[in-house]
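Q: I'm writing up a methods section and want to include an example of the input and output format. Could you take the sequence below and give the corresponding predicted structure tokens, formatted cleanly so I can copy it straight into the document?
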Amino acid sequence: MGGYPVLQTTSVTLAFILYLSVMMFIGVYFYRRTQNMSDYILGSRKLGAWVISMSAEASDMSGWMLMGLPGYAYLAGLNAGWIALGLGLGTLANWTLVAQRLRKYTELADNSLTLPDFLQNRYHAKSNLLRIVPAVFILIFFIIYTSSSFVASGKLFETVFGLPYIWALVLGGSVVIFYTSVGGFLAVVWTDFIQGIMMFCAIFLVPVMAAYALGGVDAAEAAIAAVNPAFFSPLTKPDGSAMTLVELVSLLAWGLGYFGQPHILVRFMAIRTSGALRHATRIAMTWVVVSLCAAVLVGVVGRPFLAQELTGANAERVFLLMTHELFSPFFAGLILSAVLAAIMSTVSSQLLVASSAFAQDLYRTMLRKDAGENELIWVNRLSTFVIAAIAMALALNPDSFILDIVAYAWAGFGAAFGPAILASLFWRRATRNGVLAGIVVGGLTVLIWKQLALFGLYEIVPGFFFSCLAIYVVSRLDAPPSEEITAVFDEVEKSEI
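A: Here is the clean output for your methods example:
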């Protein structure tokens, strides 16, 4: 624990037990309502605007919004605001440009249930490469992404209960695996809805109460300036040096990742009608703007508020420790449950999409073409356990930075799938080979660039660029798509979306 206080009390424990019991009950409840793969993967496309918007943002933001981003702001001040700005703009672009068109197109393309399923049906591909290759990248990057959430859950249980990190990791992961594998998509989105509300309240309350405890806004501002005046300079890095253009672009480029995140895009596919997405967009953007601003403020206000300075990866505990200082034990337990909510909402979404990609796009395609609905549901459930176990193995190092792991996986999805999805939805001339080339080039660029760390540039930037270039060049070299392929594109274009 490195000298940081254990937050556990009987009241905190009761709050956690209450929260976990409700989440597991939801999983069992929706187990009885899951009859087929459409139910398990997309909830039969019957979900409303409030549920979808809250589920999308809760699964998006994860534990990194309550731990990773505040931790970075604790070290960097308002410099962390560039990440928040990039994410806010990316969220807006995703909801306004992609959501409605993807909802319409995936239903017209043979009621596609997964992104690989959509790409295969979109281009009437006779080979299975458009299923297999995307599914492989989904598994690779979701294992990395999920490991970041398991690191967050380990730190949470370690800080709250004083458990050894490994035991904390296993405890946090077990609950998520249970309700995801049992209840499927319906359990995930309804738990996300509850978790999204909890996250919003928690991230808003903590910086407000901390500023009040410091004597008000003016007093808090003076206290922050006394610790480090550079905290109010968004162009100053944690070490006091000025940001370069490359570093600024890298932080803003987080927004590019939204176009390719399968666990977010699948929410757009599951809403009742494309028209309902307009209402969902307003709800989602309100949630995102307030939550991201509050997350940065947690770290900034936390610097003077906490008496003990946090260093290294321990800076990501700032929200947990501030909650312990500010609130009564039971109420603190409810707020800390919101951190678990953030972690669980994303892990459950990621495990569901990854296991669906394995069952629907790998197992059914390569091993058991005649597999029935019940068999596929059980393959989904079993693969959830396997994928989670691998992710937990990657999360064994407690000194890992949550934000660094998320950044890697976020870039992988954004570069591999973002250009492919945009081209498939908006460019009539895009071809099957072009999209396949874009996925491979984007994904490999991120994997390679991350190891080389060239120019200090965030790997999503070259990955996204080279993926777009590959799609354009290969599509132009290909024969134009057939009328059969463009007919559905025209139908989407003409419909009210």
